[in-house]
Design goal:
152 residues; alpha+beta; 7 strands; 38% strand; binds coenzyme A
């Protein structure tokens, strides 16, 4: 990964930066309020990547051991293809596993080849297709799973 990137658990004052990334990366962006609630949530985990004091990526999810659902993985476009998402996801998994060994689940749009390739590289297996799951645009969802002990 690029030098100078710091990975850490998000704090409440990261919510505006996470909301900015969310708005850049997703057509169905969550509000800053709901992202702030996730950052504070007991069953939630949000990890951020920081470069020169700027939050440039994040991973969020819900942890209900022995399962963890990854909601979002996002890197600002100017910082992509530098290994940041891969590093954040690994950090997220290792932090979640501080609580218990978990099985991780992710769902992703079928046409999102960048994310599908990231998840495959990180050891996720595509286990199911949910037909027409997403709206705007309508698209299938691919469900991915990473079993406990596969954590790198
Ligand atoms: C998907 C996304 C998170 C990847 O972030 P990133 O920081 O650029 O990813 P990394 O640099 O860590 O890439 C790790 C691996 O993922 C794969 N990958 C990442 N971007 C890719 C792309 N555009 N095309 C093909 N493979 C890609 C590659 O295997 C890559 O390894 P490599 O560089 O050694 O080939 C980023 O493109 C993004 O934020 N997209 C918009 C949000 C989104 O769709 N999130 C996923 C659904 S929640």
């Amino acid at each position: 990964m690029q030098n100078g990137i710091i990975l850490r658990i998000a704090q409440q004052n990261d919510a505006p930066s996470v909301a900015k990334i969310e708005a850049e990366c997703f057509s169905d962006a969550w509000s800053e309020k709901s992202l702030a609630e996730q950052i504070d949530g007991k069953m939630h985990l949000t990890v951020v990547a920081e470069c020169d004091g700027e939050v440039v990526g994040y991973v969020s999810g819900q942890l209900i051991p022995p399962e963890c659902e990854v909601f979002r993985v996002a890197t600002l476009s100017a910082f992509r293809r530098k290994g940041i998402a891969e590093a954040m996801l690994t950090y997220f998994e290792n932090t979640a596993d501080g609580v218990a060994k978990n099985t991780f689940f992710i769902e992703v749009r079928e046409a999102n080849t960048a994310a599908r390739s990231l998840y495959r590289k990180c050891g996720y297996e595509e286990i199911a297709v949910r037909k027409n799951y997403y709206k705007n645009p309508c698209e299938n969802a691919i469900i991915l799973k990473k079993a406990p002990r596969d954590i790198c």
